[in-house]
Design a protein that fits this description.
The complex is a heterodimer. By secondary structure, chain A is an all-alpha fold. Helix content of chain A is 73%, strand content 0%. Classes of the chains: A mainly alpha, B mainly alpha. Chains A and B meet through helix 1, helix 4, helix 5, helix 6 and helix 7 of A and helix 1, helix 4, helix 5, helix 6 and helix 10 of B. Chain B: InterPro entries: MetI-like, MetI-like_sf.
């Protein structure tokens, strides 16, 4: 009898709990409904559709005939695509250079020099500035006759080229501008990482007689490695999607298509030439490249990982 | 003693280097400002004139009639504000559910949403375009507003991280009191994560304000363009006439709002970015 009553009570408790649980689950589902629906309609569906469209000769209007791998075989012999792919990766040379400079800046700022806040703000201003406005500005700065860059070079006796009209200088010009724009962001993250390094590590190293380079090599570098990893990934992902600068500064894709990026080419194919099936294939390739890069980076990081927390 | 002196010398050298770097960072922007108040003849002066003899602010009056600058600002404001206000609400509500409420397969659903971060926008833009073309939304602001108001997974991610550190006891007490879950969100959770929402809100607002690729795909009519497209058009149109003061004045107008927002909230912005980077 007693056990029965007990069991009844437990059951009641369970029922009560599950009722609350049900109510809670319903509320939770309702709260995540918007992002979930948004994901299905605006990410998952277009993503699958892209893959499907990449196997068709879709022109954006009506007909979508299945043409198998034709788009994919075509892109391997498409000189425009190959140059845009090359340009996109070439311009990533700026990533390690930018990271090195920002790490040095962050180390400089981490010494408690007066004016640190002001420096931080100044270096960060290009980051918050609109990329379109910055591109307009730099296009003018790279002007061969009157641009700021060549006027500066003239001061030290160098006769600068017409940066954006020249196949050999247009990519370096874009790289320099990209470094300039991104410096503040990487510097900020490095500075935050450096500030989280316990001071006693350096004090201990000092006692052991380690010189500055050894301290950098064995303390600073490993401690900022997670941030470097994060920055490399985000820079590659953003770099692979470079578009605005190209569209504004070299509207035709530069001399001999030497500054066109993959996204610029996709955009041209899809919305100028209305070759949406082919453009979809290009966009799938871009997606795969970004995915692989991310994966490789994760694997590399795993191998020589350093845990921050 | 010599150790301290050595550090002082090193600090001075670094201070000079940082100052030189700061000049490089700020010089292009100052030059932009200086060009915008120059007369045309000064623009092409060699050697360059940094401070013009006569400040000519007429271009700042001219830009408003030289192109659809005002409607550009309006359109950008409409898009940025509706996206960030509605989107912050949906995102924070979802973050609350993901961090604190019990739901079967909650983490699997969260991971599914996170996978969206791996898919670049260019891989989605063509089907999205054809969807919105089917809805007759081309050359309206709707394709730029509707998708993001369903929530921003980056914001959900950071707010969830923030909420996980909030003790459950606060919520359990309210649950026992019989407060509805939406009530718990508005009365307890929202005030608690307000600073985090504010930081994410500002960053998102800036990103939407500065966006270029999505607007250029959807918008054509001059009165529908966002501010970024308007200045790109200024650049394309007036560069032929070498009217650089006009172009630079318009670009400064496009830059200024975000610069002001940054200078006002620089402490919060810098802090939240630093945190996101270290955690990311």
């Amino acid at each position: 009898m007693a056990t029965k009553a007990e069991a009844l009570q437990v059951n009641k408790k369970k029922a009560k709990k599950s009722k609350l649980y049900q109510k809670e689950s319903r509320a939770a589902l309702l709260f995540i409904l918007a992002p979930l629906v948004g994901y299905l309609i605006f990410t998952l569906y277009p993503f699958l559709f892209s893959i499907y469209a990449s196997f068709t000769n879709w022109n954006g209007l009506g007909t979508m005939n299945f043409i198998g791998l034709t788009n994919y075989t075509r892109l391997f012999s498409d000189d425009y695509f190959i140059s845009s792919l090359f340009n996109t990766f070439f311009m990533m040379i700026g990533i390690p250079i930018g990271l090195l400079i920002s790490l040095l800046l962050a180390m400089g700022l981490n010494r408690g020099i007066p004016g640190t806040t002001t420096f931080r703000v100044i270096y960060y201003i290009p980051v918050v500035s609109s990329l379109a406005a910055i591109s307009v500005l730099w296009q003018w700065a790279y002007n061969g006759d009157y641009g700021l860059v060549n006027q500066f070079l003239a001061l030290i006796g160098i006769d600068g080229p017409n940066w954006l009209q020249n196949t050999s200088t247009v990519k370096p010009a874009l790289i320099i501008m990209t470094i300039w724009k991104g410096l503040g962001y990487s510097m900020l993250l490095y500075l935050a990482a450096l500030q989280s390094v316990p001071k006693m590590y350096y004090e201990a190293a000092d006692l052991d007689g380690a010189n500055s380079f050894q301290q950098f090599r064995h303390i600073t570098w490993p401690m900022v490695k997670p941030v470097t990893f994060f920055l490399v990934i985000t820079n590659i992902i953003n770099g692979a999607q470079m578009f605005t600068e190209i569209n504004i500064m070299t509207p035709t894709g530069g001399p001999e298509y030497s500054s066109a990026t993959v996204v610029f080419y996709i955009w041209q194919k899809a919305f100028d030439n209305l070759q949406m099936g082919y453009a979809s294939a290009l966009s799938v390739v871009l997606g795969i490249i970004i995915f692989i890069v991310t994966l490789v980076q994760f694997k590399l990081n795993d191998k020589s990982s350093f845990e921050i927390d | 003693m010599s150790q301290i002196r050595k550090k002082k010398i090193a600090d001075s050298v670094i201070f000079v280097a940082l100052s030189a770097g700061a000049v490089f960072m700020i010089a292009p922007l100052l030059w932009m400002l200086s060009t915008s108040v120059k007369q045309k003849s000064d623009v092409f002066a060699l050697p360059p004139v940094w401070i013009p003899n006569e400040f000519d602010f007429s271009k700042y009056a001219e830009i408003w009639t030289a192109g659809p600058l005002l409607s550009g600002i309006q359109n950008s404001l409409i898009i940025s504000l509706s996206v960030t206000i509605v989107g912050s609400f949906t995102s924070s509500l979802a973050a609350f559910a993901f961090a604190k409420l019990r739901l079967k397969n909650k983490n699997a659903l969260f991971l599914l949403l996170l996978s969206a971060m791996m898919i670049p926008y260019p891989s989605l833009m063509i089907p999205q375009f054809s969807m919105f073309a089917g809805a007759g939304w081309i050359d309206t602001l709707l394709p730029l507003i509707i998708p993001p108001i369903f929530g921003n997974i980056v914001m959900v991610f950071f707010l969830r991280q923030y909420l996980i550190n909030v003790p459950n006891a606060v919520i359990e007490a309210a649950k026992i009191d019989g407060t509805s879950f939406f009530g718990i969100f508005t009365k307890i959770i929202f005030p608690l994560i307000k600073p985090a929402i504010a930081a994410q809100f500002i960053l998102w607002f800036m990103a939407v304000w500065n966006d270029y690729l999505a607007p250029i795909i959807y918008l054509n009519s001059p009165d529908k363009l966002t501010i970024q497209l308007v200045i790109a058009n200024f650049n394309a149109t007036y560069a032929i006439q070498t009217d650089y003061p006009l172009i630079m004045a318009a670009s400064i107008i496009a830059l200024l709002p975000m610069l002001i927002v940054f200078l006002i909230f620089q402490k919060q912005i810098i802090e939240s970015i630093a945190i996101s980077g270290v955690k990311g």
